[in-house]
Amino acid sequence: MLYSDKVMEHFGSPHNVGVIENADGVGEVGNPVCGDIMKITIKVSDDHLDDIKFQTLGCGAAIATSSVVTDMARGMSLADAVKITKAEIAEELDGLPPAKMHCSVLAADGLRAAVDDYLMKSGREPISGGPEDVDGDVHGPAEA
Ligand code: FES
Known about the structure:
Blueprint: H1 5-12, E1 25-30, E2 37-45, E3 48-57, H2 60-73, H3 78-81, H4 86-92, H5 101-121
Antiparallel strand pairs: 1-2, 2-3
Helix pairs in contact: 1-2, 2-5, 4-5
């Protein structure tokens, strides 16, 4: 299996690893395909992601996708962050082998779960629409 240089970079030196103390939102998700798990913690200010960290117990692709999604999401509005798709994550990494595309779902879903957790803790409605669909679409409330 061939990984891009970018995947190898993020796998070798992942960015934003760890857990934020007193996080505003926490997303913990498991991958139904392989059983790997990840946790994303976020700090929110003015509905933007001020800080974001991850911990992943998963494969190299899961670590690389988690690393790159935290880079992509930092500073984004909550509304934009929940729209990041696994396809965009894979593109940011110059592609993933087809057998590893499911790994990028973990990062995207963890981020969505963390944003929703923050909103619900603040007494607001979740906005992510839930986990990403297997075909790359995001379930919106209209499809629920
Ligand atoms: Fe489990 Fe990649 S094999 S996340």
